[in-house]
Automatic annotation (TrEMBL):
Family: Belongs to the acyl-CoA dehydrogenase family.
Coiled coil: none
Protein name as catalogued: Cytochrome b5 heme-binding domain-containing protein
Cited InterPro entries: Acyl-CoA_dehydrogenase, Acyl-CoA_DH_CS, Acyl-CoA_Oxase/DH_mid-dom, Acyl-CoA_Oxase/DH_mid-dom_sf, AcylCo_DH-like_C, AcylCo_DH/oxidase_C, AcylCoA_DH/ox_N, AcylCoA_DH/ox_N_sf
Classification via PROSITE patterns: ACYL_COA_DH_1, CYTOCHROME_B5_1, CYTOCHROME_B5_2
């Protein structure tokens, strides 16, 4: 931006037909924009020729200026812009907006340089490629584009979603920022937390969450190596999509109550799967379904390919249909016996051990959201003027923000502690020892999210109830955190699971 203009020159453009204004020491010509302005023409005519910085930031997010940068004529002579202008990949400078380990002055026992490199690359990738599509799809409710899936496949962002493992060995991850063999659960956490930042909760699940929670089960439990490799290659290359189909209209968290059946054919070569599934994330566009069902030997899990015997219908929930939440009917879907995950009758173990990574991932997401909301509240309460003063000058607002910060920080600390345990345990040890702590963390994190959403909405007032604009993130969080509280096991079920796991380990201790 080379043009330099004086405040006197700006002041001359002060009629309805000729509107210039100054925002953050930059000059904008709004003359041709006036009819397109969502806030109407009158308000713009009122500020023609003046500095409207305060009025602007009282009503708009900074990103509005980034989007309409073409309206900017130049800078005010001798003045410099003061408002932070974040670029793709940047860390936020707002206190508590980033986890402590990302602050240059803070030390952490958990993270090394490869974590830092991955965070940087993931932030840039997300800002540039995921966020724009996430916002668009969240609003129009359509599903993720093949173009974005391909980009995530090429860079191995898709593969990272499964967590550490052989599927990452030898892979070029985001241009080589981390060696697949070094990839651990902190890398995994970073990927998940960065992908939550676009603040589009429906799209966040629409962005291959189904794959992230089902291909993990295939990795661990599908015995047929050839089939496992084929499915893994198809899905991680983005050619095929998959989802986890456990819950039913008949049974939610009560997994044992499911009614979908799988009957062996007379020749013993196939199962015929019949029944329904409900609230299945990504089901609409999935080619494979990891299905919990009942066989003659009990609760079992099968990998069911899409066929004419599989019917999928979109369910509208309170977040965007971009998540592809689905009602599924299987009508004698024919599945080879080699598609069994684990042994027949071992389904409970398959589902329960697979839940650990899913729940832990959800904790990472919702905790990152809390932090985003803290950032929104800190920014808003500094820029919003009420009773002639910034909102932050009200002690009651500072009390709310103090609590929100504490909840975000304490949850992140617990998450990191559990993640460290995961790094030092086998899959089997995690299943045995961490299902309780992970369940308790998820239950606790979403209870805290409830408090954060509640306080943030009160801070934002009407804007906290309005989609888009200033309250965009807070409104979405208030509407969206419940998905974390329900999906993958409700708060109550998980709290109970956590205590029951502890009961199993109780010694014969007496007071
Ligand atoms: C570069 C200059 C401006 C641009 C590009 C712009 C753009 C927008 C946009 C996109 C919205 C929709 C809400 C949102 O997405 O945030 C909006 C709303 C609005 N704008 Fe502007 N605007 C500008 C300047 C101003 C100024 C200087 C004023 C008044 C002093 C103003 C008053 C309003 C009002 C009252 C609304 C409705 C806010 C609400 O519903 O809460 N705008 N503007």
């Amino acid at each position: 931006m080379s043009v330099s203009l004086t405040r006197e020159e700006v002041a001359k453009h002060n009629t309805e037909e000729d509107i210039w204004t100054i925002i953050d020491h930059k000059v904008y010509d709004l003359s041709d924009f006036i009819d397109a302005h969502p806030g109407g023409s009158v308000v713009l005519a009122q500020i023609a020729g003046t500095d409207s910085t305060e009025a602007f930031y009282n009503l708009h997010r900074h990103e509005v200026l980034q989007k309409y940068s073409s309206l900017c004529l130049g800078e005010v002579e001798g003045e410099k812009s003061e408002i932070a202008d974040p670029q793709p990949g940047d860390l936020s400078e707002v206190p508590y907006a980033e986890p402590l380990w990302l602050k240059p002055e803070s030390a952490s026992p958990y993270y090394n340089d490869s974590h830092r490199r991955l965070q940087k690359a993931m932030r840039k990738f997300t800002d540039e490629h995921v966020t724009p599509e996430a916002r668009e799809k969240e609003d129009d409710g359509t599903f993720i584009s093949q173009e974005l899936i391909d980009k995530m496949a090429e860079t191995n962002v898709l593969a990272m979603r499964l967590g550490p493992g052989k599927h990452l060995h030898g892979k070029n991850i985001l241009g080589g920022v981390v060696d697949g063999k070094e990839f651990d659960y902190f890398h995994d956490m970073i990927v998940g937390q960065e992908l939550a930042r676009p603040a589009a909760r429906g799209f966040q699940d629409g962005n291959m969450a189904g794959m992230a929670i089902s291909l993990t089960a295939v990795q661990q439990w599908l015995w047929d190596e050839e089939l496992k490799q084929k499915v893994t290659d198809e899905v991680l290359s983005g050619k095929k999509k998959m989802c986890l189909a456990v819950t039913e209209a008949f049974a939610g968290s009560d997994v044992a109550g499911i009614r979908t059946t799988a009957e062996l054919t007379e020749d013993g070569q196939h199962f015929l799967v019949s029944g329904t599934k409900k609230w299945i994330t990504n089901g609409m566009f999935s080619d494979y379904f990891v299905v919990a069902c009942k066989t003659a030997k009990g609760f079992s899990v099968l990998l069911v390919p899409r066929s004419e015997a599989v019917e999928t219908k979109l369910i509208k929930t309170s977040y965007s249909t971009a998540a592809g939440t689905t009602y599924i009917q299987f009508d004698k879907a024919k599945v080879p016996v080699k598609n069994l995950l684990g042994r027949e009758g071992q389904g409970f173990e398959v589902v329960m051990s697979n839940f650990n990574h899913e729940r832990w991932m959800m904790c990472g997401g919702v905790i990152r959201w809390m932090r985003l909301v803290v950032e929104e509240c800190l920014k808003w309460s500094h820029q919003r003027i009420v009773f002639g003063k910034p909102l932050i000058s009200q002690p009651v607002i500072r009390q709310k923000i103090a609590r929100m910060i504490s909840l975000a920080e304490s949850n992140q600390a617990w998450l990191e502690q559990i993640t460290h345990q995961m790094n030092n345990m086998t899959y089997a040890q995690q299943s045995k020892l961490l299902s309780g702590p992970i369940a308790l963390l998820k239950s606790h994190a979403t209870r805290c999210a409830h408090d954060v959403a509640d306080d943030a909405t009160n801070i934002f007032g009407g804007r906290g109830l309005t989609r888009g604009g200033m309250g965009r993130v807070v409104e979405m969080f208030h509407r969206g955190y419940k998905f974390d509280a329900i999906l993958g096991g409700t708060e109550e079920i998980l709290a109970d699971l956590g205590v029951r796991q502890a009961m199993k380990q109780m010694p014969k201790a007496r007071l």
